[in-house]
Amino acid sequence: MVENSTFNFSPIAVARTPYKEKFAIPRQPGLVTAAKGKVEFLSPYNNPEMLRDIEQHSHLWLLFIFHGTAGQGWKPLIKAPRLGGNQKTGVLASRSTFRPNPVGMSVVKFDGVETHGKKTCLLISGMDLMDGTPIIDIKPYIPYSDALTEATSEFAPQAQQHDIDVSFAEQALAALSKVANARELKELIFQVLKQDPRPAYKKKDTSWQEYGMALDSYNIRWKISDTTCVVIDISPN
Amino acid sequence: MVENSTFNFSPIAVARTPYKEKFAIPRQPGLVTAAKGKVEFLSPYNNPEMLRDIEQHSHLWLLFIFHGTAGQGWKPLIKAPRLGGNQKTGVLASRSTFRPNPVGMSVVKFDGVETHGKKTCLLISGMDLMDGTPIIDIKPYIPYSDALTEATSEFAPQAQQHDIDVSFAEQALAALSKVANARELKELIFQVLKQDPRPAYKKKDTSWQEYGMALDSYNIRWKISDTTCVVIDISPN
């Protein structure tokens, strides 16, 4: 009987992304296009034949395990960040990570296949995945069946716009000038902070509060008051 | 290490659909809108709180197990029906059911929540799932992040149109007249056969070949030659 069965999944790959911690990961894919990463295949799935013709698709679905929160279990009701974190919504009416089966799906831009010796990787961008996320499946995005223009969602009709004004202090610019990929890193920091990663209840805070995050191989520190954000330091971690 | 971990998933629900066998299931969701069914929750997930606010979404993603084919394993290359079944494509560049982890994702129209005593069901339509499919997760379809109008797919740019001319023979119409939901059943049969469920290599066959399928609680028999299809019998099974 289906009721009593369990299904065992093994990761076929691991995501490598600039997001080293849960804080500051965008809440949906596609918001931070400057986030570039890879999908590294694991043995015995490290076989380029599995990817034949994949370049015919511009976008891919990744099915993955919410490994950062999977140990914390799930609840029937969750607090939706979109509703300020106070109102509760059914877990299956949300994309919360605290699900009965902690599996996520996320669409990413497909940028190419890379081979290092015997290792095969997919190059991807715009992902909202934590570094090290186990991938259990990859499927092409098929526009005619996946892009439902007639679908509606009262709960989340559009992406949230935070209109955060992001600037870089002198110390941060000096640190950037010593980085090989300065332009890319600056754009990544800019796009991530533009999303305003603060918890919803902090967003009206007008005192200058300081935050930090590990992004790519750097520690980023910034100060934010209401909608004005200043990057104050960038240091290797 | 991620490499050596396995993840155990338990079904939270089971799909109840008119498709009693793999043959004749549409190849994508949304093609047969007359297919109506249910998602029946299993204990301990039979809790209506999990569904609070779900009516704010017009469509839902179902993540499920390809239970009909999961026992048959997987291969790195699969024969794509779209390419006539002769050319081979990488399994991860396809939506084939024979995947390393046999998990599927499918979008369905959400028609409401139904409660029978303590049993909770989601009413759905347009699904491409076999009856009895184990569901491991349900997520709302979020148009702004899921409906990628810029995505492209050379492999499958649009739904295949078979332009099959479907008619009903006298014996089939007589059988239909005795059925309580005759109009709905006729429309379902019509939409399913319009998809031309024959294997690709048979589609140019001009001899009148007979086929049968179990659909809803009936056995349907039809004859087809090239693009002309006649339903010859409908009997309870």
Residue share in β-strands of chain A:
25-35%
Portion of residues within helices of chain A: 10-25%
Tally of DSSP β-strands of chain A? 13
What is the overall silhouette of chain A? globular
CATH top-level class of the largest domain in chain A: Mainly Beta
CATH topology of the largest domain in chain A: Elongation Factor Tu (Ef-tu), domain 3
CATH architectural type of the largest domain in chain A:
Beta Barrel
Judged by helices, strands and strand pairing, the structural class of chain A is: mainly beta
> How far from one another are the termini of chain A?
51 Å
What does this molecule look like?
2 copies of one chain form a homodimer. Chain A has 237 residues and is mainly β. Chain A folds into 2 domains: 2-67 and 102-146, YaeB-like (Elongation Factor Tu (Ef-tu), domain 3, Beta Barrel); 165-236, YaeB-like fold, CATH 3.30.2310. The first copy, chain A, has helices at 143-146, 170-177, 182-194, and strands at 7-9, 13-16, 36-41, 59-65, 77-79, 88-90, 103-116, 119-125, 134-140, 165-168, 209-215, 218-225, 228-236. In chain A, the strands form 3 sheets. Chain A has a 6-stranded antiparallel β-barrel with strand order 2-3-8-7-4-9. A 4-stranded mixed sheet of chain A has the order 10-13-12-11. Chain A has a two-stranded antiparallel ribbon with strand order 5-6. The longest helix of chain A is centred in the last third of the chain and has 13 residues, at 182-194. At the A-B interface, strand 1, strand 4, strand 6, strand 7 and strand 9 of A face strand 1, strand 4, strand 6, strand 7 and strand 9 of B.
